[in-house]
Amino acid sequence: MKAFVLERYGSPLREVEMPVPVPAPHEVLVRMVASGVNHADERVRSGEFKAIFPFRLPKVMGGELSGEVVETGSAVRDIAVGDHVYGYVDLAATGTFSEFVAVDAATMAPVPRSVSLVEAAGLPVVALTAWQALVEMGKVKKGQTVLIHGGTGGVGSVAIQLARHLGCTVATTVSTANIEAARELGADIVIDYRRDDLARSLANTPVDLVLDTQGGATLQASLGVLRPGGTVIGITGPPDPAFARRVGVNPVVRLAVRALSARTRRRARALGVTYRFLFITPDSAALRQVAGLVDDGVLRPVIDRALPFGQTPRALAEALAGGTRGKVLVTTDPKAVTNHG
C-alpha cells in the first residue's frame, strides 16, 4: 500500500510502499477513502510535539479518516466488515495518510447516513473540537454568548453550527471575503478581523466563552471581551498545566508547559476570567451524536476541496496557507477529487 511517512522532524512527508497492516485484536483494518489534513499534522512534522509525543520514526502521519472496514480483530464486536466508519485516531497514534490503516475500534463510529464517505472525513477533528470545547469543557447553556474565531475555517464552520443548535448567540471573526459565508452558517455577529476592532465590536455584548483558533494577539484580545467568570478555550496553545497532567509528561516537560502559558493564565486571573487549552481526544460516543446531528440537518460538513491522495503534502501546505472555507481533504476516490491542479 501507499503511505506518507515522516522520516525525520522537519523533513517533508515522503510517499512510500508499505505492507498492509494486520489488525490487533481490538483493532479494525480500514480501507481509507478520505483523510482530513490539519494544522496538528504540521505541528507533528515540525517536531513541535516531540517532547510530549515522542515518535519512533519513520511513522505514517495523519489523524482522521473515513473508509470501509475490510477486516476486524478477534475482540471487536460492534463493527463488521463492510461497515462505513469515520473517526479520529489520536495524535499519538496517527497513520491515516495511507491506503489502509489499522485503528482502535473504539475510536471509530458509523458515518452519518446523509453525507458521502468523503464528506464524512471532514468531520472528526473539527466536530470533536467543537463538541469538546462547547459541550464538555465549556458546558455552554442556552442564552449564552459564544465568540468563535476563524468562523469559516474547518473548526469554526462546525462550531458556529453547534453553538447555534445549543441556543447560543454566536459572534465570529472572519476575513472580509467570508462575511456572508459566516452569516449563512448561523453567526449572529460577524466581525471583520482586518477592519473591525474586537473590543469595540463586542462592547455591548459581553461574551461567556471564546473558542480561540488563532493564538497570539487574538488570544490576548479575547481575554478582554469576556464577562467576569468567562472562559477562553484555546486550541493552538499555549498548552496549560492541566494538559500536561492529562498526557502524563515528565516533570521537566511539565514545568516547561507551565511556563509557556504562565503569562496568559496570569492575565486571565487579573481579569477575573479563565484560560484553558484543548487538545482533543478520540471519542466514538461523541461522533455518534455528531452523526445524528448531521442526519437531523443540524450540522453539515464544510469542505473546501478534496485533492488526490498522492498530493497529500500539497494538501497540507494548502491547509496551512489559510483562506480556506472548511476542511481540506485527500481522497483515494478519483471521482471525489474537487481540485485537480
From TrEMBL:
Transmembrane segments: none annotated. InterPro entries: ADH-like_N (IPR013154), ER (IPR020843), GroES-like_sf (IPR011032), NAD(P)-bd_dom_sf (IPR036291), YIM1/Zinc_Alcohol_DH_Fams (IPR050700). It comes from the Bacteria. Residues 10-330 form the Enoyl reductase (ER) domain. This is NADP-dependent oxidoreductase. It comes from Streptomyces durmitorensis. The lineage of its organism: Bacteria, Bacillati, Actinomycetota, Actinomycetes, Kitasatosporales.
